[in-house]
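RECORD TYPE: inverse folding
INPUT: C-alpha cells
STRUCTURE:
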C-alpha cells in the first residue's frame, strides 16, 4: 500500500551510533487534523527530536513547543500560552525490549525493522502537542479574574486574618463539638 510522505520523519538509514538532533517547524494546519486547530493551536509548532542510536535500539525524545490561544475558564478573556511537551519512544530491533527500572512511564517501546529507511513521528508529535494542552485555563494578568492573586497579596496575607465565611465555618464547627 502506498503511503503519502510523512510530515515529520527521521532518517535512520545510514545513521551512525551516537546522539543526533533534528529541529522541525510546521504549522498546525499541516497535520490535517481539525481537533488540533480547534484546541487552539493555530500557529507554528516547533519540534526537537533527539535521537540516540545504539547497537540494539534507538531512543527518540520528542520535545514540542507551540503557542495556543484559549479563553479563560473563569472570565472568558482571551489567553495565549506557550505550551511545551515531551515524549520518549524506544525503537528496538529485538522482540524483547529491556526496560530500565528508573523509567518514569512516559516512554513507549516499538519494534523497528532493521531495513527501515526512516521513522515517521508525525502522529507522536500531534499527540504530544494535544497532551500539552491544560485541562483548565486561567488568566495570569487579569485582576478581575477570581483565581488570579498578586504575589503581593499572598505575602501580605496573615494567618490570623480570616474571611467571614471562614469565621462562620469555625463557629459552626465549635457549635457541634
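DESIGNED SEQUENCE:
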Amino acid at each position: 500500500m502506498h503511503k503519502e510522505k510523512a510530515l515529520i520523519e527521521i532518517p535512520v538509514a545510514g545513521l551512525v551510533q551516537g546522539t543526533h538532533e533534528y529541529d522541525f517547524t510546521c504549522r498546525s494546519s499541516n497535520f490535517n487534523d481539525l481537533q488540533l486547530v480547534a484546541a487552539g493551536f493555530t500557529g507554528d509548532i516547533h519540534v526537537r527530536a533527539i535521537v540516540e542510536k545504539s547497537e540494539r535500539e534507538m531512543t527518540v525524545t520528542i520535545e514540542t513547543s507551540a503557542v495556543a490561544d484559549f479563553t479563560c475558564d473563569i472570565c472568558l478573556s482571551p489567553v495565549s500560552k506557550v505550551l511545551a511537551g515531551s515524549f520518549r519512544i524506544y525503537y528496538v530491533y529485538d522482540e524483547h525490549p529491556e526496560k530500565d527500572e528508573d523509567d518514569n512511564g512516559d516512554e513507549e517501546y516499538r519494534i523497528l525493522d532493521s531495513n527501515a529507511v526512516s521513522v515517521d513521528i508525525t502522529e507522536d508529535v500531534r499527540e504530544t502537542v494535544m497532551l500539552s494542552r491544560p485541562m483548565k485555563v486561567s488568566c495570569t494578568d487579569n485582576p478581575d479574574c477570581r483565581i488570579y492573586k498578586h504575589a503581593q497579596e499572598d505575602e501580605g496575607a496573615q494567618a490570623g486574618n480570616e474571611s467571614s465565611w471562614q469565621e462562620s465555618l469555625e463557629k459552626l464547627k465549635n457549635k457541634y463539638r
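NOTES: The first strand starts at residue 9 and ends at 11.
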